[in-house]
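seq as requested:
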Amino acid sequence: MKDLFFILFFGTFLIFPLQAQVDTVVHPVQENSLLNQMNKVFEQSNSYQKYKVIDKAQLEKLKRNILDSISKLETTLTDQQSSLARQQGVLDSLQSKLLRVQSDLEATQEKENSIRLLGISTSKSTYNLIFISIIFILVFLGGIFFYRYSTSHKLIRESRSKVNELEEEIEELRRKNLEREQKLRRKLQDEINKNKGIR
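struct tokens:
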């Protein structure tokens, strides 16, 4: 029983695929286009003098097939037009989003490349130029102030040393004047004493 089932089971699988392959070889696929159908109707029609006599059933079938094909083409065309309209809508939406994103990007880049200085929006290069100019001006002014400070400090030192020298000279002159005055007083006292002694 198992053997019989086994043979039938595998036999079925072996025969049907071969049969399907044989069918495809025996019956080649015929194109069922309108042109082929018209040619077939034309070949199967009879001739009468210079006219062709076509069977009404074949003509009706051809007419239905033509109308059916036109209907399918119209349906396909409307489907494609609606699909194209949807795609155009999506494309328009994407383009508007792209424009919005580009404008946002430009605004962001402008904002990133600018700095607000005293309430005025300036580019970073202008800000850097202003900042470097201020630094150079401050360094220049600092150099001038340092030079003036060092020269005034030097003048003050020289003035102090001259004042000290003058004070020393004045002190020396005072001392000399005091000594001279003392000498003159002594001489005067000596003369007074001499004059008192002579009298």
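Strands lie at 46-48, 51-53, 114-117, 120-123.
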